[in-house]
Structures are given as C-alpha cells and as structure tokens.
C-alpha cells in the first residue's frame, strides 16, 4: 500500500521541511516504506522507499556524499530526506543539480526532528491507508454479494463498482457480449476494448489460455485493465476497468488492485453461474420442444401451441429449417491442450454457445428462431420474411459462420438448407435440410452449404441405387475400369467424366487433365476396350455416365482407393 509524497510532506512532523528539488513530482511519486540509511547503499534501498539520512558516512567529503545520493536515486527511492547538522551542514550545489536533473525529491530536515517520529507517522499513514483499502474491499464484497443474490442486473453491479473505485467499469460474457456497464463508461474505451477483444478471440478463440488473466488496453493516452473472470479453470467473461492514467500500474499497485478486483470477479462469476443454471432448465425444455417439432412428435396442435407459448416461441410464423454439423469436434478439443475441463464439459458448453449465437444472429436480423442440438447436429428453424428465402438463409448462415469462427477458429461446420418452408411444416422442412446436409457432405465434402433444391440428381441416384438390375449393369460396366485404375494408378473414371463434361471436346479435356492430346486419346480408347462401349454411341455414353454416377454416389469411399 502506498501514499503520495505530497501526503507525506503534509504530515505535521514534516510541514516545516524544505523541498529542495522535485517539487513538481510530489503528486506522482508514491511511498510504500520508510528507512534510515547511511553509506554504503548497496542493495539496502527498495523502489518507492523514502530514505532518511544524517550523512554520517559522508561528513566533510562531498565526493562520497555525491556518490551516496546518486546510488539512492538509482535504487528507485521515492525521495531522500537529509538531516542538516553536525555531519551535513548544507547540501552542496553539485548534489542539488544531480537531484534536479533526475527530477528526484530532495528534502532538508531540521536536526531536531527525530527519525523515529518520522517513521512512526509515515508508516502509520501507510498502515491506515491499507486499513481503509481493506475496509473498502470488504464493503464492496458484501454489497456485491447482496446485489448478486438479490438478482440485480449487472448494469447496477458495474455502476456500484465504478462509484466505489472511481473508475469506469464494463462487464462482458465470454463471447464479448456486454452484460453491464457503468453510466460513465467512455465511448473511446468501449471501441478500443471491442477491437482488442475481437483480435484476442480471432487469434485464440473463446477458450484461450488462462496463463495471463490481466491485459492492458490503451485508449486516448490512458490505460484500461481487462481482467478475465473464470471459475474451475473455465472462462466466464471479462471485466474492463478504465482510467489508470498514462501508464499501467506499478508492481506495488498490482497487488492492491488484484485484491480488490478478485472480489469483483468472484461476485460476477457467481452471477454467471446462477444465470447459467437457470438457463440450463429452460434450454432443456426448448431443446425437447424443437426436437419434437422436427419429428412431428407432438400429439395435437393445441398442445403444440400451449407449449410454444410457455417457451415464448411464435409458431404461427413461416419457418425454414437449417441443419448444421460441426466437424472434427474431438480433434478441435484435443488441440486446446491448456484446457482443464473434460471433453463432455467442453462440448456441452460449445453446444450452448452455438445455440445462443444462432438465436442472437436471428434476433439481429429481426427474425424469430427456434434452435436445438440433437444427434451431433444443430437444428435451426428460422423465420423467413421475404420471397428470396435461400438468399436470406445464406446471409444468416454467413453471419453465424463468422461468429463460430470468431469464437472457435479451428472448428468447421457443414450446412444443409431445406426447400420447403412456410407454416406448420416443421417435420418436412427438417427432413429436407437433413437430406441436403447428408448429400452435400458426401458430394462436396465438409465445411460446405447445400440446398435441398439442388440435390435432385443425387436423390434420383439414391433411388436408382436400390434397383438390382441397374446395380448389376453398373458393376459389369465399371469392373474392368476400376481394376485397371488399381493396377496402373490411372483413374479412367475421372478421365471419362471430364471428357463427358466437356461434351467430347478432346482439346479442352486434355487441357483440364494436363495431358498431351495423344495420351488422352490413348486413355479414351482404353475406356472403350475395357467397357465394350463406344464413346460415339449416345446409348453407350448414357450407360457409362449412369454407371459412374451410381458408383460415385453409393460407393464414394471406395472410389478414393483408385484416385
């Protein structure tokens, strides 16, 4: 705990002393201890220590006295008080110049003032300041707990803390959503902090390491402190405290602020945990309801409307279904080696984050939504408000995808969008979105967006796959090509599909495959000989194309063995 040199000089015992240098530094220089030192200085003086001396070791030796004062200055002492008397009769000009050049506080003491009296008064003031600080901390702790247990908003909590510590205060959750803010919180700091957190989440995601719980944010020539709120090794949110002046606080001030702010973070963490517990019960009810809507498992419309009303859902609006599948969840979790929570705990939290973001983005677009997570997939019923439905849905997905990447950069998501939308078509729309997702993952891979309306050919292929005659034709047609690909490592199926896509244009196909024209012609003749099909015969082309489509659609895993 520290007091300013101005405070020290105002004490009764030091009022009559003379400040020879550093008068302008009294306000900004702090003292956390007082000591009596004579030569040699060595390592006996600490930073922010007021030093008292009689100069007994430097009597009548200006050079030794100069060296002594220089070492005191270099030690980081707050000031030096010299008792003028039998050893030091006056302070030489060379020493005054030295202290002045370093903006160091040099004080002349009357010999009659006892050092013990100075020590008693200064240390007494420091201890009183510490007592008042601890008292204030205890008052803040009690009042915060009362606020939290009474269910008051975090705006009230932030404003109370702000008035108690005389600094602007902001409280945000782990996603960066502002949950509480003091009335006097400056807009420039709000903008700078938003940029700072965005960069932090962009680089490390929502589950960054807790090795560093303090971060400084610079704004308009001042500093603000971002403090991470956490419990049981898990980040809950952030507190931002502004108004620390042109420099971050010193090591001495650090302990004081840590002690104070730890009580604030503990109280806010309790608020978040209470809120989370209340939300969990509501989420479970909502999850069950939306999942039953998806499966058309609610017995009557009256019961559906009643349950929707109790959950504050509006089901009398036009909705379309979106299904999202997070990819490689286990790998993403394992990549975050600093986490101290289990995979199940992490996954549960991430599911809730996805649901919250899905609802938040819909709200930002002035749309209603209903969300649940089932069978490793996020199911979203999104209100549609104009005729360009798919365009609107893709805009929504784009914003949601940005937030997912922002909170968890290593995670990818695959999407499926229904064709059917409107009133009371929840189950049908879900089945379409689910089908679009499955087909899209098979055809286009992960981290893609697929629309049910664009999967006509794939759905036809799935139906044809079940026909035993077609299966036999496809196997007989492609067997030799696949064997050849396995033995020679030349994918003739890909050669044919590229040739067919280019409508038989040999030059264009050779360019796409990066082949010499003669090499391509050789491959095309080999396809004809292996399949007994002529590439000039439309019927043979149809059989080849259909067989390859069936093969790729139904046995796409095996296909990779021949690529």
TrEMBL record:
Residues 8-126 form the Purine catabolism PurC-like domain. Gene3D superfamilies: PucR C-terminal helix-turn-helix domain. Residues 301-439 form the CdaR GGDEF-like domain. Residues 492-549 form the PucR C-terminal helix-turn-helix domain. Belongs to the CdaR family. PANTHER family: CARBOHYDRATE DIACID REGULATOR, DNA-BINDING TRANSCRIPTIONAL ACTIVATOR ADER. This is Regulator of polyketide synthase expression. It comes from Halalkalibacter wakoensis JCM 9140.
């Amino acid at each position: 705990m520290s007091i300013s040199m101005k405070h020290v000089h105002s004490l009764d015992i030091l009022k009559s002393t003379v400040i020879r240098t550093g008068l302008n530094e009294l306000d900004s220089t702090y003292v956390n201890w007082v000591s009596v030192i004579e030569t040699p200085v060595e390592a006996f003086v600490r930073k922010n220590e007021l030093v008292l001396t009689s100069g007994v070791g430097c009597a009548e030796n200006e050079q030794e006295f100069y060296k002594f004062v220089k070492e005191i200055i270099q030690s980081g002492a707050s000031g030096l008080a010299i008792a003028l008397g039998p050893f030091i009769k006056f302070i030489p000009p060379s020493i005054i110049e030295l202290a002045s050049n370093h903006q160091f506080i040099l004080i002349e003491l009357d010999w009659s003032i006892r050092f013990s009296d100075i020590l008693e008064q200064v240390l007494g003031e420091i201890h009183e300041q510490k007592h008042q600080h601890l008292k204030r901390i205890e008052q803040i702790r009690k009042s915060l707990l009362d606020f939290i247990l009474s269910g008051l908003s975090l705006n009230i909590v932030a404003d109370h803390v702000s008035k108690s510590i005389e600094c602007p205060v902001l409280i945000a959750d782990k996603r960066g959503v502002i949950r509480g803010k003091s009335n006097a919180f400056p807009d420039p700091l709000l903008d700078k902090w938003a940029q700072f957190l965005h960069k932090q989440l962009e680089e490390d995601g929502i589950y960054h390491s807790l090795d560093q719980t303090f971060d400084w944010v610079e704004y308009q020539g001042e500093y603000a402190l971002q403090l991470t709120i956490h419990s049981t090794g898990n980040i809950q949110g952030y507190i931002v405290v502004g108004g620390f002046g042109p420099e971050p606080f010193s090591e001495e001030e650090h302990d004081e602020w840590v002690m104070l702010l730890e009580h604030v973070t503990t109280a806010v963490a309790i608020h978040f945990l209470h809120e989370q517990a209340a939300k969990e019960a509501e989420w479970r009810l909502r999850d069950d309801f939306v999942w039953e809507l998806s499966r058309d498992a609610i017995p009557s419309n009256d019961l559906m409307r009643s349950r929707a009303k109790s959950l504050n859902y509006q089901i009398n609006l036009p909705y379309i279904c979106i299904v999202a599948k997070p990819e490689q969840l286990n790998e993403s979790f394992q990549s975050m080696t600093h986490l101290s929570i289990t995979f199940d705990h992490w996954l549960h939290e991430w599911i809730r984050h996805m649901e919250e973001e899905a609802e938040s983005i819909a709200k930002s677009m002035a749309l209603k939504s209903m969300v649940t997570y089932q069978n490793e997939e996020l199911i979203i019923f999104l209100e549609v408000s104009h005729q360009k439905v798919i365009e609107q849905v893709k805009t929504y997905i784009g914003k949601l995808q940005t937030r997912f990447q922002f909170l968890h950069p290593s995670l990818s998501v695959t999407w499926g969008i229904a064709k059917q939308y409107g009133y009371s078509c929840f189950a049908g729309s879900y089945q379409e979105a689910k089908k679009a997702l499955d087909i899209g993952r098979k055809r286009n891979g992960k981290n893609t967006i697929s629309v049910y309306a664009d999967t006509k050919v794939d759905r036809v292929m799935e139906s044809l796959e079940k026909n035993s005659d077609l299966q036999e034709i496809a196997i007989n047609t492609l067997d030799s090509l696949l064997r050849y690909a396995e033995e020679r490592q030349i994918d003739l199926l890909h050669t044919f599909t590229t040739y067919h896509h280019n409508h038989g244009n040999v030059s264009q196909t050779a360019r796409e495959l990066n082949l010499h024209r003669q090499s391509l012609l050789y491959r095309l003749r080999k396809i004809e000989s292996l399949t007994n099909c002529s590439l000039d015969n439309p019927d043979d082309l149809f059989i080849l194309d259909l067989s390859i489509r069936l093969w790729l659609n139904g046995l796409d895993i095996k296909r990779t063995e021949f690529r």
